[in-house]
Predict the structure.
Amino acid sequence: MKLATALFAFSILLAATLACSIADQFTSPTDTPAPAPPVTKISACAPVKTAADEGDILYNAQVAEHAQAQIRIQILTPKAIQTVEFIKPDRFFWHSEAGGVWDEAMSIGGTAYARGSAEPTWKQVPVLNPMAAIMMQPFIDPPKKNSGADLLAQLTKSGIANPKIEGRLVGYDPVAFFGSCVYELTFKSGDTVVYSQKTWIDPATGVRNKFEAKDETRTVIETRLFDYDGIKIEAP
């Protein structure tokens, strides 16, 4: 758990479309079209040679996300579910649920509201729930870029012996989220994998579509799903 906490603290906070031409739509059924080559779109994905290359890609994804007018992130773990939403400049919503107990918080123009499973009616409150406030702040502050050396130092401080970080472009997924470039960071202690994370990035906009983290047993311990439209946050 100590390892997972340390790595999540430094997680790098992380749509192609297909169309037919008009001519294609009216091709005579007697015509025999030439076999189409496989569509990979790997050329749309930025290449990765080092972990630093991937660090730059993931940082740029955060910058692109910060420029969005609105964003929703669903955070799924084996024991809890969280949803955070933000609409510029000052509308925020947070939902947290674990073990059948849930809490929600909202902030609109600095006015805070809260409710939960114990008291399900929205009430105006003096200050935003502290956990919700922590979740809200990264949407307000611009992303900060940490160096690989800083991250390695933090991993060493957390007890990881001989830490190493490897990055790679897994490939282009033409199905996921209408097309995504998939990147992976692997954290090692010597040659032993202790943690890994995959990120699905929209090659058209540069934002993240999905994030998935696995522990040393290759078990998924966290999934994040991103959305950037259709979000509404209204005062209760």
Notes: DSSP finds five helices and eleven strands in the chain. The domain at 2-11+42-227 is CATH 2.50.20 (outer membrane lipoprotein receptor (LolB), chain A).
